[in-house]
Prior knowledge:
The complex is a heterodimer.
Chain A: E1 14-21, H1 27-40, H2 45-67, E2 75-82, E3 86-93, H3 100-103, H4 120-127, E4 130-135, E5 139-146
Antiparallel strand pairs in A: 1-2, 2-3, 3-5, 4-5
Helix pairs in contact in A: 1-2, 2-4
Chain B: E1 2-8, E2 11-20, H1 25-37, E3 42-46, E4 50-53, H2 55-70, E5 74-78, H3 82-90, E6 98-100, H4 103-108
Parallel strand pairs in B: 2-3, 2-4, 3-5, 5-6
Antiparallel strand pairs in B: 1-2
Helix pairs in contact in B: 1-2
Amino acid sequence: MSSPLSFAPGRVHIALELEIPSDVRYIERVVEIVARQCAQFAYPQRQTCLNIPVALSEALSNAILRGNGDRSDKYVQVKVDVTQDRLILEVLDEGLGFNFEECLQDPTEPDNIEREDGRGLFLMTRLMDRIERFSNHGNVIRMTLRRHD
Amino acid sequence: MSFAIKKQGEIVVVDVEGQLIVGNRQELKQRVLDELEKGERRFLIDFSQTGYIDSSGLGVLVSLSKKIREQGGELRLANLNDDLKTLFELTKLDTLFQISDTKERALETF
């Protein structure tokens, strides 16, 4: 495995765009690509093994199953922008979007803890520093994570 | 993900290798339910080879725990690494499951 690259702070960023068919089987591969880019900037293992994989998996899963209605003829775009200081991920689906706040329930409350669903958005907000939703020829979820040592 | 199911005494031990996520969690659920249907009642899931788990993977574990308990059985988890422990703590699922540091400890306390 190559050692992390040493870049002058703030000088370099990696920008990627991926487009995948709307199929959950592609999620793992996308996560792997993104985590590898962050590892190049020496993001800590906690972030490359937990925060980024889980939050990105959730966003992709929502895009595929909800945004695109689990339709395999649709696509999901992923934009990745990573520097030594922060990671910005954008996940775009072809859906109409949703009210993020309305869908955000607390799965840790006693009434919800035995539910099988309802943890995806919660985990995204806990594992990323910032979550934004907007429309741009589709529904976009933007997630930002600052690199913490 | 791949997983191996084996019996140790009266306990069905399931090793989860790889990620437990939306694309593969149904398979785990079905295999465990098949064992439940056959009459097995004690289950241990070993996460020593597991990468990450997403919310649907957590959901399957919750669902299995419920179904196994309804049949008078028990589901335990073992070998969560620090990242997975954090996931369970964030979602307070560490209060729902019996989690052991090692498989041996989990098997002993069944």
